[in-house]
Specification:
This protein is mainly alpha-helical. The chain is built from 4 helices and no strands. The relative contact order is 0.15.
């Protein structure tokens, strides 16, 4: 429950930052891209959590660590995003995108494991 409240709060902060930063320069666009990537990762993490819980239950869910990392990144953005360089923002976005790709790979493995064998 606390995680859900934190996610909603951070999503609201991200939305405010996103709207205020859509004005134009490269740094602002970089921050907006980071926030877009974070939103996409959050959506994939929610899907992954649901898939993993459907297969393995909710006890040992590796998505929790990824969600906590995403929250740390959002907090960093909230605290440092306005002063961060374009390069720092690009690195954060690349890290978030890599995380989303890893989640996509894990979901693909789950889907393959669920698919009936052709043998």
């Amino acid at each position: 429950m606390t995680l859900a409240i934190a996610l909603l709060t951070l999503a609201a902060v991200a939305a405010v930052l996103f709207v205020s930063l859509r004005r134009g320069n490269r740094r602002q666009r970089a921050l907006a891209q980071v926030l877009d990537s974070a939103d996409a990762l959050e959506a994939r993490l929610r899907e992954a959590r649901a898939e993993i819980e459907a297969v393995a239950g909710s006890e040992d869910n590796p998505v929790r660590d990824a969600m906590q990392e995403m929250l740390r990144q959002r907090l960093w953005l909230q605290q440092h995003g306005q002063q961060a360089s374009v390069e720092q923002l690009d690195q954060v976005r690349d890290s978030i995108d890599a995380g989303r790709r890893r989640i996509d790979q894990q979901l693909a493995r789950i889907e393959r494991a669920r698919a009936p064998s052709l043998h």
